[in-house]
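We emphasize that the prediction below concerns an isolated chain of 132 residues; any contacts that depend on oligomerization or on bound cofactors are therefore not represented. The input was used exactly as deposited, without trimming of termini.
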Amino acid sequence: MRAEWQAHIDELLKEYRDKRAQLRELQERLATAEATATAADGMVTVTVGSQGQIKNVEFDPRVYRRLSPTELADAVMEAAENAASQVRQEVQDAVNPLAPPDLEGFDLGKILGAPPRDFEETRERYGFRPQE
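Result of the prediction step, given as a token string:
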């Protein structure tokens, strides 16, 4: 009987170590997750991190001649929201395999909150108001 228990304990210990390694890998993946999106015909590029923070914004030099300040702000917000949506999906895809099987339909968005519905809500939520 002792050998059976030892085999069971060894199996549980292996499962624990495997899950711990998977969680460590998930933590690293979530810490480095980011997505990049463009708007305004590629003239605005925004990179967003795993928690929705803007990590980088790039403008094509032509953007200043082609877009008004309001249009530029809208393009930045559009690219940021698209990148945030992509990174949310990447995070969801990374978390899903480790979610317990009884959490079918697990939605990370319910935990992190829904993304803004549109540019106006994004501006209000984050207090962003462009000057014209």
